[in-house]
Amino acid sequence: MLPTGLIACVLLHMAASVEVPKLNMLDGGQMPAIALGTYLGFDQNGVVRSKSKELRDAVLAAVDAGYRHIDTAAIYETESEIGEALKMKFNEGVVKRDDMFITTKLWNTAHKKEQVEPAIRSALNKTGLDYFDLYLMHWPIALNEDNSYANVDIMETWRALEDVQRLGLTKSIGLSNFNKEQLQRVLSEGSIKPVALQIEVHPQIIQSDLISFCKSEGIIVMGYSPFGSLVMRYGLQFPGPKMDDPLLVGLGQKYGKTPAQIVLRWAVDRGVVPIPKTIKPSRLTENISIFDFKLTPDEIEKINQYNSNTRYTIPSFWQEHPNYPFEKIDNPVKDPFKKD
Ligand SMILES: NC(=O)c1ccc[n+]([C@@H]2O[C@H](COP(=O)([O-])OP(=O)(O)OC[C@H]3O[C@@H](n4cnc5c(N)ncnc54)[C@H](OP(=O)(O)O)[C@@H]3O)[C@@H](O)[C@H]2O)c1
Description:
By secondary structure, the chain is α/β, with parallel strands linked by helices. The chain has one domain (22-308): NADP-dependent oxidoreductase domain (TIM Barrel). Helix content is 36%, strand content 14%. The protein contains eleven helices and twelve strands. The protein has helices spanning 4-16, 54-65, 79-92, 113-127, 154-166, 180-189, 208-217, 246-255, 259-269, 281-288, 297-304; strands spanning 22-24, 30-32, 36-37, 42-43, 46-47, 69-71, 101-106, 132-137, 170-176, 196-200, 220-224, 272-274. The strands form three sheets. An eight-stranded parallel beta sheet has the order 3-6-7-8-9-10-11-12. The protein has a two-stranded antiparallel sheet with strand order 1-2. The relative contact order is 0.13. Residues 1-15 have low confidence and may be disordered. The structure holds NADP nicotinamide-adenine-dinucleotide phosphate (NAP). The site of NADP nicotinamide-adenine-dinucleotide phosphate has 23 residues, from helix 10.
């Protein structure tokens, strides 16, 4: 017989792991309805790297909390620590490979058809995995190694993604940061339909048109930067609702949730897979504890009213590229990826 303390401990452990629902993808696979974001940001030295294995530890805690979907990208430089954490969790027997859904992305400097297979193989090597669940073209922007614009058609890259799917290096393929016209082109000229489109979605950019279009095509929308103005970005506060916003606080009181959880649930209730990033264990648990309540259509509509079509990801340094997907701005910033 197990001692009472141990039983309590086991029950606590079970209760702490959230069961996340899954969405059906149009190629027959299933995607967990929330993903852990793993981009650690950018500073004057380039991409921020994980310190003292903080990202590996966050992924370990995330798996324990119930996350089954991890979002990464070649450019984030987090693939190796994610792989390390997964290996530990596989060895502990906590999860098996097919319990996990791993999304990663092809970077812009590897868009030529002969570059795509080596790029995904390199990412697989870093993670120690045999396959990814989802491989996305990160941007419709092809660049040369020196970050000058490359003349590679998006369909050349898309067909190479189709090839790596056929080779079994990824179960599914999709797109990120494509606008509607670019997505339509892939749908009409490609042999395989993208299963997912990853775009910025939060209360300041609700993306109703693109989301409806994706729904009509059976494409899942993954929403990045899901907290919008609720959190600081680049060390700054941006206009828009904050954690003390009366509507979000009021809904939080009604459902026993925080404003952060209300905003994540708003995404889920709109059929969007949110990708909240945190490396803090308490926030990992907070962000995934959103599957025991539902907002009403009226509440969703009230949050939709915060829309101002405001993006935080505006790579205006690429805005003269022929495939730049967003609206151009007046004072484009200097390319942080470009070496002088
Ligand atoms: N496809 C693309 O081009 C693209 C672009 C951007 C992002 N993404 C993906 O989307 C993910 C998320 O986007 P993001 O990092 O821009 O934005 P985000 O998830 O909306 O915000 C992250 C920030 O929120 C804080 N935070 C997390 N949970 C919180 C909570 N419950 N309460 C208060 N603060 C909280 C985090 O701090 P702590 O870490 O300190 O908790 C971090 O500063 C990325 O990591 C990446 O995987 C994709």
